[in-house]
Design a protein that fits this description.
Layout (H helix, E strand, L loop, with lengths): L1 E4 L4 H14 L6 E4 L13 H19 L3 E12 L2 E12 L4 E5 L3 E3 L1 H8 L4 H9 L9 H6 L6 H12 L1 H4 L5
Helix pairs in contact: 1-6
Length: 174
Amino acid sequence: MKIAVGSKNPVKIEAARAAFQKVWPDKKFKIHGLAVESGVSKQPMSDKEAILGARNRAKLAVRALKADFGVGLEGGTQKINKDYFECGWIVILDKNNNESIGSTIKMLIPLKMVAMMKKGMELGEINDAVFKRKNSKQIEGHFGLMTKNALTRTKAYQDGVIAALVKFIHPDLF
């Protein structure tokens, strides 16, 4: 089975691979990551924008590789009351254009970091600056840095991909 992930980020590719393997352990998968545009801002500031970015990535990936599934993963922030949260959204499209959506958990973003985002910085850049890291979004990401890797970005996205697979796991229920 060919899976096209709309990203070259190794965290997102590994999350998709691990999720598909966990759901269908007896199947063989070929996972391909490819650079595609999300069509949204570098730092989506709403769930709606992040879902659109994930959908765009999934569409472009599945079409480009004529894959069985296209997986789009897009991180974004959402304001709830006075707080901001980080959340990854996942859209999966099959070769027949059937779509399913899932997400990671939502994690609080410190106000200091929110202020930096409002000045135009992407959360990954902010994490690198605050935690003195380089390219952390391709390693532990916000989730890992904030939890001392008790929850890694890969694991959070893996769970989100599994959540997004439910329509394909149980199509008869949808």
